[in-house]
Amino acid sequence: MQHTTVDNINHDNIDWPKVKKFLADYGITHASDFAKLTSICYDPHDPSYLRHVKTFEFNHDIHLVWDAYKNISPAHVWSGSMIRFGLQYARYNNSITYPNTQTHDGLQAGQVLILNLCILNGMINICVGHEVMEVNETEKLIRICYLENAASQGSQFIRLSKTGTNGTLVTHETFYKSNSWFRDRILYPGLHTKALKEFHGNVGRYLEEGRAD
After folding, report:
1. Are residues 4 and 95 in contact, defined by beta-carbon separation less than 8 angstroms?
2. Which of 67, 53, 74 is nearest to 202 (CA)?
3. How many domains in the chain?
4. What element of type H or E holds 74?
5. Is residue 42 part of a domain?
6. Looking at the domain assignment, is residue 213 inside a domain?
7. What is the DSSP letter of 32?
8. Total Cβ atoms within 10 A of residue 190
């Protein structure tokens, strides 16, 4: 996947109408306009956040799994029947990455991901935004926060730990809240679980295909 430093957003390279609408609603016509968007991360002192945890196991060494999470392309990892990659903006070099190009930087802090969620077999589509806040090599930790304009706010923590002699446990912990009890208690847990299964399942297939070697 190739990124471009051309400042204009090219809508011809974006597949999803809801992503295009998101950009229009927030006046994002150039890469530099993404500077308007900030993220609202989980506040551990705020008791109103809810917690969601899922674990995933891989029969691969932790260093190989970590490299897979860092190096899989965003269009590949954010791909499934529910989650679809819209585009990515990188704060560190003001570049845009689209789904239809070839190279990418690897996972780094400062990447803003705009995704399309297909719900009810595509009858409903919504746009969501995440920002990668931390990629911690020593602790094998990825921290992602929701953009301020999202329906939910909070943080996702992806932690890798060794299991057995040559396995890896991935714990995906999310702290979230919104202004809707129904969304938080009824909708979010099931939809989030499905999205995580697609996301981590894509990493698993990437490992099985040997792309992380």
Report:
1. yes
2. 74
3. 1
4. helix 74-77
5. yes
6. no
7. G
8. 9
pLDDT of residue 213: 45
| Residue bearing tokens 């002192």 | 45
Contact 134, 142 (CB under 8 A): yes
Distance CA 27, CA 95 (A): 17
Structure tokens at 211: 């792309």
3-class secondary structure, 167? strand
CATH code for position 106: 3.30.530.20
Residue range 154-183, pLDDT digits in tens: 999 999 999 988 999 999 999 999 999 999
Backbone angles phi, psi at 140, to 5 degrees: 50, 55
Q: What is the pLDDT of residues 123-158, one digit of tens each?
A: 899 999 999 999 999 999 999 999 987 889 999 999
Percent of the chain residues past pLDDT 70, beyond the cut: 96
Q: Which residue has the tokens 């602790």?
A: 139
Domain that holds residue 90: 3-208
With beta carbons less than 8 A apart as the criterion, state whether 3 and 90 touch: yes
What's the CA gap between 170 and 173, in Å, rounded?
10
* Buried b / exposed e along 95-122 (16+ C-beta atoms within 10 A): bbbbbeeeebbebebebbbbbbbbeeee
35 secondary structure, DSSP code: G
Rounded to an integer, the average pLDDT of 62-79 is 96
- List the structure tokens of 3: 């990124």
Q: If DSSP states are collapsed to H, E and C, what string results for 105-159?
A: CCCCCCEEEEEEEEECCCCEEEEEEEEEEEEECCCCEEEEEEECCCCCEEEEEEE
